[in-house]
Fold:
Amino acid sequence: MCGIAGIVKQNSAPVERPLLQRMIGMVNHRGPDAAGFHLSGSVGLAHARLSIIDLGGGHQPMHNEDKTVWITFNGEIFNYVELREDLLKKGHRFQTQSDTEVIIHLYEEKGEDCVQYLNGQWAFAIWDSRSARLFLSRDRVGVRPLFYATTPEGFAFASEIKSLLAVPSMRRAIDMEALDELFTFWVTLPPRTIFAGVSELPPGHSLVLERGNLRVQPYWTLDYNPSKGLENEEEAREALLELLLDATRIRLRSDVPVGAYLSGGLDSTVIAALVNKLGKTHLKTFSVAFEDKEFDESSFQNEASAFLKTDHQGVLCSSQDIGRVFPEVIWHTEKPVLRTAPAPLFLLSRLVRDQGYKVVLTGEGSDEVLGGYDIFKEAKIRRFWAKYPGSKFRPILLRRLYPYMKNLQSQSDSYLRAFFHVRKEDLESPFFSHLPRWDTTSKLKVFFSKEARDTLKGCNAMTVLEGLLPARYKQWDSFSQSQYLEAAYLLPGYILSSQGDRMAMAHSIEGRFPFLDYRVVEFASRLSPQLKMKVLNEKYLLKQAVGDLIPRAIRNRHKQPYRAPDSQSFLAGGKAGRLFEYVEELLAPRAISEGGVFDAGSVGKLSEKARQGQIISVKDNMALVGILSTQLVVDQFIKNFPRSA
Structure:
């Protein structure tokens, strides 16, 4: 794991080393072990290294034998051992034991198609001086970030946007259409980012810059095509377990110790159990516990650890802890968030680093790939209710689905029908499963200023998303459509970024995700929906596959989504009457008016509710966090962006 950056200057102007140093310095947290540079005329590559494989020999940027091909690489190629053996047979010669060098030789052998052979998580840039070609690639599901921009100085790329903003000629401004998307879907739709002029290379895509021509194209895409060969439950169960074991095995490849997150839920417990089954004993595990029992899962974490005999350590997180680190969290997310959930994970990665670890396995991706989210259950219930509006049982199921949404429990059936879009006409929407979530989020736009609303006249985020859907989307069953929306957008845009890569790499921690091995993802996409969710039993096949490898109580427990305290986190001293000083400053009428995004009067009323500890609704909690984090983005990246890290 590392940080990368680079620039190709216009008009053959030479790259200055101080510019590269400034760019890569912005992401030193991603790679504190070493920094490297390659400058050749108008091309400059930079690298900040977190050494995990071949500690002594894996320095970057790295080159081939005759120094005509150079790479700066962030990530891990987990099948590099097998690829290396194959390349040796074809006559390639290696100077290191690193996975980085494997990519170079594979590129020499296969060109741009080299990415088809990689099993891993990556963002890399290859400069091929023979053809004056810059080749960028990002892994299939978007574990590792990669951004780019065309500036007056040239084409720049980096692991994080702050490196691009360090280019002196780079304009710094909020893209209001991107903010509109985020206040609809929780994420921006790639290639758009929250910053005007900065693009994100979408997951599963490559980019080529050659003689001034820019080409972005997909090399892999999600597809759902239930296969007749996977209808047999027993065979599918055995195949899934075998795949997960191998995905875990190759993700244990490391020259430094590997730990694991253990949340107390099904997915992280499965991963820890698979490590045990592979013969690695006394696994070091880490978790977050909450002072507030509404969010705490420590009893399940302790049960899983005792069952699996792991060496377990947790960090106890209070709402005050969240409020204190929230500005740092937003510095790393580089975009607004609508919940405080990333903050405890920021604290967790700090614990991991303090314990001397650099690598952890986690359970992310299972819900998206194997059908675990409540939103999938919700859609099934709503779809049935829409077809049979007289049903009395369906509204009861919806209430049971969200026991932590206290306001929902007392609402009438007619309110639930409207809130959950239980109407026959909604069944025709390509976004049926997500309409309630996106409708709730979109209501936050009432806080936008008149100027912001005027700017967004004629913009429709859902129309934009509909234009991005794959051609086969309408042919998929409704369950697969729901999965696609989660896996293609929320997973890379929020789960793997704001909660994943950014919180882990803030403390130089690499996360690895066995459930997101592309072989597991492709296998799961061929499963019938009934094997993923049997009636309303989520991740059915996974539970059957792991059997007694995990505690029965965890296998059978009701799914508890990961959440953290929101508005109460910003009360100074944890008591009503006063907010943290930075919150008071950023939500003050003058700061809101100067930011230009939100309406000062509306925000004033909301902040007063927060000050008195009276925010209880989901909408108001999301609004407070979304507005505050947007103000932090404006403050940190637009108004007061540092000249150096």
